[in-house]
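Fresh eyes needed here. Have a critical look at this protein's tokenised backbone.
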Amino acid sequence: MEILPAYLGLFASAFVAATLLPAQSEAVLVGLQLAGYPVVALVIIASIGNTLGAVVNWFFGRGIERFQGSRWFPATPEQMQRATAWYHKWGRWSLLLSWAPIGGDALTVVAGVLREPLWSFLLIVTIAKTGRYIILALMTSGLMS
């Protein structure tokens, strides 16, 4: 087994999957787990990559307001308003849904727009994303069905 390329591929897929770009890392993690790679290492690498990708979104959110209204802007004003309302309603705890395939990435951008402190952002997003990978690994192992 080529360990370094596999781990780098998992890290990259997890990183990109957490940004606004369309990607998925779950299939990579499951494939590597089924190929016999150590589960704990896979979960750690995927979690770090996915969390760092979310941090990119947070930084993007910190500076995005000046581009709102541009044709290339990734969200309509209505979408931004809904995400902002959701975030205001549930606060930083809405970041526990940052793992979700639909809406999770937008929450991490909104957290940056609304100036969520980086320390609390990192803590909550790391818990959410690591939890998702742990559950996926347990399901793949057959320990959770």
Helices lie at 3-18, 26-34, 39-64, 77-90, 104-113, 118-141. The chain has a mean pLDDT of 89. Residues 3-141 form one domain.
